Each structure stands twice: as C-alpha cells, then as structure tokens.
Prior knowledge:
The structure holds two protein chains of two kinds. Helices cover 31% and strands 28% of the residues of chain A. Chain A is of the alpha+beta class. In chain A, strands 1-2-3 form a three-stranded antiparallel β-sheet, with helices on one face. Chain A has a three-stranded mixed β-sheet with strand order 4-5-6. Chain A is globular and about 50 Å long. Chain B has helices at 39-42, 406-413, and strands at 3-9, 24-26, 35-36, 44-45, 50-62, 66-72, 75-83, 89-100, 105-112, 118-129, 133-145, 151-154, 158-159, 172-173, 178-190, 196-202, 205-213, 219-230, 235-241, 249-260, 264-275, 282-285, 289-290, 302-303, 309-319, 326-332, 335-343, 349-359, 365-371, 378-387. In chain B, a hairpin with a 2-residue loop joins strand 26 (326-332) and strand 27 (335-343). In chain B, the strands form six sheets. In chain B, strands 2, 3, 4, 6, 7 and 9 form a six-stranded antiparallel β-sheet that branches. In chain B, strands 13-11-20-15-18 form a five-stranded mixed β-sheet. The interface between A and B is medium-sized, with 31 and 39 residues.
Amino acid sequence: MVINITKWTSDHCGCTHNYSWDDSVPQDQRVHTYVSSDFLCKDHAPMVNSNTAYNSTLEENQRKNTALQHLIDNFPAQLSSTGAAAGSLKDGLTFNYIVTGTAPNRVFTISFTGINLTPPQRTAIQSRLDTRFGVGKVILG
Amino acid sequence: MAKTLLLSGDSPGANQTSTVNTTQFWFNCGAAVFVNATETNTQSIFRTAGKLSNLWVCITTNSTTITITSRKNAAAGGQSISVGASATGNFTDAVNSDTIAAGDKVSIRSVPGAAGTFIMTLNSFTYAATTNTAQRLVSFANLGYLTASVTNFMLVNGHNDTILTTEPTEKIRQRKGGTFKNGAVNLSANTRTTAGTVNSRKNGGNGTISISVTASTAGFFEDTTHSDTVVAGDDYCFSFVTGSGTGTSTVQTAQVDLTNSSGDGELVVSLNGTNNPGTNVTVFSTCGGSFDTSATEANMQAVVNFPYVFSNLNINVSSNGSAGAQTVTFRKTAADTALTISISAAVTGQLTDATDAVTTLSTDSISHKFVLGSAGMGISYISVWTNLQGASFSRNFDLTGYIPTQRDIAGLLGAGRAPIFG
C-alpha cells in the first residue's frame, strides 16, 4: 500500500489543493482524502477552513464539468462531436461559464459559442439543468 | 553540466512512415516525429553551446535497411545508426557525439537501402550544455497562418496540430524555476504582405521575447537578446500575431531554450487543444513530442540513455465528464512508478505529483499510462521533470541480473560523490 499525494489546481477558480489516495485500492473504489491547500482564491479563502474550501472547490468544479457532459449526452444532435451521447463537445463549439455569488452557494452561468439555440432548445436545456442540479445552480445564459 | 533528454515522439501513422528509396529528414528535439523531404523544415537551431550524444531512434515497422545520421548545418554529423534488414526496436549510437556551437542547426536524416519502408515513432538526443543546463524545446506546427490581425497561440514543445486563437490549452505550467531564452520560429514559406510578431507569453501576458517576422520572408527568425525568468507555477507559451495584410505564413516550428543552474530539464508531450484519448480503456503515450496514445506501450517507450531522476509529473485536464476517478502514471520499463496522479470524477485543472521522484538507469525506458473512465478526459499536455544531480541508488536497490554501465556510475557520482553499496 502506497499513499500518494496529488496536487490539484482548479481551472475555474485557481485554488490549489492536495489530496491523498491509496494506490492499492482499485480505481473504481478509490477515495481522495483532503490533505492541505497551497492557495485559496478570493472566493474560497473566507470559508471556515481550507478543507471546507477544498470541498466547495471540488463541488463547483464537478458541477461545471458534469453540466457540460450532461448537456452533450442529452442534446447530442446540437452539442455532441459524435451526434450521440458520451461524445465530446462538437468541433467549432466553445463552452463558456462564469461563476457568481458566495461560496458554498455559487451559481454557474453557462453558454455556448458557435451555435444558435432556439427558444424551445434553451427551455429544454434549462429544464434539464434544473432537474439535474436544482433550480438556480446552473443557468443557461 | 547536467544533461537533458531531447525526446520527440508520436504514434505510428502515415506521417511517421518513410518513402521508398528516398532520403528524408525527421523533426526532433521535442517536436512531433514527422518525416519531411526538406531538411531545413526539420532543423532545430541551437544558441546554447554544448554536445549532443546518444542519437536514439525507435523503429516499429521495417522492410528495408536504414542508415540514420545526425545532421549539423545540413552536413553529416558525427552520430550514425545502421538498422539491419527488416530490424525493428530501439537503436542508439552510444559512442559518437556532435559538438554544438551557437547557431548550429540540427536534424536527423534517414537513408533507406533496398526498396521498402519503415516507421519511426520516437527519436532523441542527450544534450549537455557547456554552461548550466539547457533544454531545447521545439513544437511542430507546419501550419499556414493567413487570417489578418489575429493573435494565434502556440505550444513551446510538442505538436501544434491546429491554428488556435485561444490560449488556455496552449499554456504549459512550469513546475520549476528557470529562464526561457533564444526564442525562434522557422518559416518554410511566407507570402504575408505585412510583418507578423511572435511573442513569448507568461501567465497570460506578453513576455519579453519578441520576434518580428518580416513580410514575404521565410527562414529562422530569432530573439537571442531577451529572456523570461519563470518560477514554479508560471504558465508559458507563444503567440503569433498576424499583420493586417494578406497571404500566408507557414510556420514549421517554434523553439526556445529553458535554462537553469539546478540541473533541471522538462519533458513535455502535447497536442494543442483538447484531446480525449478514449473511454474505459488503458492506453499509453510517449513522454515527449506529440500527444497521441496507443494500446501498445512498446510503440511509446523511450530509452533514457542516462540515469535521470524524474519528478513533478503534471497534467492539464481541460474537460472531464467521467463518473469515476482516472489515473495517469509515469512508467519505467513497462512498470508503474510512484509518480502517479489520480483525477477525481468530473474534475478539471492542473494536477501534479510533486511528492515523488523516480530514479532510472540508462537502459530504462519511459512512457505515460492512462487508465480512463466512462467519458475519458480532455488533455492538452503532460510534463515531467528530469534532473541528474542527486540521483542515487537506494541501499536496497536490486542489481540482480544487471551490471550498471560506466555511464550509469559516472552519472550517479556527480561532483564530490562516492557510490554506496549495501
């Protein structure tokens, strides 16, 4: 059993955290355990402690990335590189996001460049996001 | 001074396949391994004096004989490899070397024998700068920039596969300090009616390296005056800003030195943009050159030819919809090492193993392994750092069946050191 430490810098806020994991545990059962933080961004620094900041950073980052894949899977004709679920974002499209509010209750506003979504498509996408993440967590801008 | 590994790689394909009965040249020193008929397109220009040695190639398919030589200033270099009829595997000139002076242009040439073709997936040199440590970084492009008044971004090492006007996936996060200097671009053709500008980019802003590419002029363009000091955590890449006129600038490579006095070198394997290697699969990549993957690790393994210590494995994950963790591991001779990164489900960003270090022998081979999840992940680059100073054998190191070479011992001793045998 070897305990490894991975240093992660989030791409949505710049926080840098360290977590440990056991390489003898199969990947699909792996657990990441918070160890320490090298840097907290201005939005996460005010949180009660760095472990809480890590949890918030992690939740936000996963929410942003899961939202993108969720939409690709459920709107493959518009968004998927393969035209089917489990593809990547279609070539020529760009996924944009901003995050606002106060951690741990920050809100993602997302948009796509390179495609003009119709009003019914936008309504359907927002409905999907609200069902998946809860109302007001990820907003289609 | 400490040696660095100038490693180029790619997965086997049409661009790595030779032409029957044709002398050809190969991109090198960190660029994607692409074959080219024109030597000047493939040249890496050196501004830091030193010595190149250990010319090494990996041949994965072969139906001919081959003579592979180093080239200096479009003439025969001192290093030469002879590949026997239909032989495949790793081939090294471990004896000869090329002394490099400032301004020398280096390439690799292949001359086939009887009719037949071969595939080269990797090549490398060992480079010892005369003063301090220098890693020549080269990114392959072969791209025609023709849109006026646009800022395009380029990697400093690996493979610029497409023209990109966004920066995030082009930036390479530095894990150690150093100085970038001797920036260069090599244009094989240029019909642009106005000048273009190549700038170094540090942390999203222009660095001090700046190169003006004269209108309608091709060749090497360099800035040998300015340099950028970086510290761990800094991001670095290049930009190419086209002027307002018309025409196309065809860039073959962008190049720069990374220098330091700590013995550190940086290996980068990259492909610009976001690249997903696959889903629910285990694949391998080379540690330098173009980021592409193969299920066959042997196609991606590079022999190090010198006892380096590897550390600071780093990956930039730009997209990730996987439901579970994924793993990137630095491999030594087809075995996992302690240098490994676990990427949480649906997490993106820069991830590093800044804790572990792996010692190699000169005969070891290196590669990266990816254990991918349900949606894979988008990757722009993976980097790992080399150092020779301080490399040491553990007292418990198992030498069964292996006799260290004179190079291993010489490399491990360093200045003022003595071997310790348990």
